[in-house]
Amino acid sequence: MIHEWWGFNESITKTAEIFSNDNIRVFVPDLYRGEAANSAE
Fold first, then answer.
1. What is the Rg, in whole angstroms, of the alpha carbon atoms belonging to the chain?
2. pTM for the complete prediction?
3. Is the separation of the CB atoms in 10 and 36 below 8 Å?
4. Domain Dienelactone hydrolase: where (predicted)?
5. CA torsion sign, 25 to 31 to 33 to 35?
């Protein structure tokens, strides 16, 4: 699973947990190494 352009956030974590609860293995790399955008600019 790849996060949106603004970075890894709680929404991605929750979605991965939903898949995991259904016994689906999910790999979710943090492509921005902990950084997240606050706006589109």
1. 11
2. 0.69
3. no
4. 1-38
5. negative
Domains identified in the chain, total number: 1
Report d(CA 16, CA 19) in Å as an integer.
5
Position 13 pLDDT exceeds 80? yes
Classify residue 40: in a domain, yes or no.
no
Assess contact for 20 and 12: CB atoms under 8 A. no
CA gap 14, 26 in Å, rounded: 12
**b or e along 2-30 (b: 16 or more beta carbons within 10 Å of the residue's beta carbon)?**
ebeeebbeeebeeebeeeeeeeeeeeeee
In this structure, is residue 24 part of a structural domain? Answer: yes
